[in-house]
Amino acid sequence: MLSLGLKNQYFVVPNVVEVNTTSTIHRLKTRKKKILHISLILERSKNITGILRALYNIIHNRKRDDFELHIIGEGKDTEKIKNLSIQLNLYNRYVFFEGMKHPEDVYQYLQEADFLITNSNYETFSVVTAEALACGIPVIATKCGGPEDFVTEETGILIEPGNEKQLGDAIIYMLDNSDKYEKRKLMEYANKRFNSFTVGRQFYEIYKKILFNLKRVEH
After folding, report:
1. 10-22: per-residue pLDDT in tens?
2. Count of H helices and E strands in the chain?
3. What CATH number did the domain enclosing 37 receive?
């Protein structure tokens, strides 16, 4: 809106994300880290092929194979992404397609993952990135219009959209350091920022200010 010359006071109000603060699920220590990507599989916006190419480079050029990527979701580009994973010899070896899942199952995947990747070219908010933090797992996310408002150095890594070198470096870092992010702190951060009371209060203050200004104009 600013770029179009629509000058005004703008506020970023996040989505409400439910946080299960009583969760006691602990990630199992295994040789392979579990990476998660969740989306409606639409390449134009989600850039999943970029994730696959980054993983291929990590395996063949950085000699790392201590991970699995689990992709949750279905979309018009699912077959395209699967075919690329087959071509890169990743399919059902390093990359697993889980299909559509019920919300309860998605939360189970999130709580058991080591980290989430959001590699989008653009987002309005990226609820799934916030949900990952709410489940206590760190994130790799692009500066795509949403995550940069709430992903910090304490909660994950921000990279430029379409930059596979940055993505590869971030994945390597997470493979070595994801367990250093404290699950409880991530959950508390998400709860403080995305709970319904906090978001509701932000809307209330905005509406109150608008109504106050309208009354001043009327008088």
Report:
1. 778 778 887 665 5
2. 8, 6
3. 3.40.50.2000
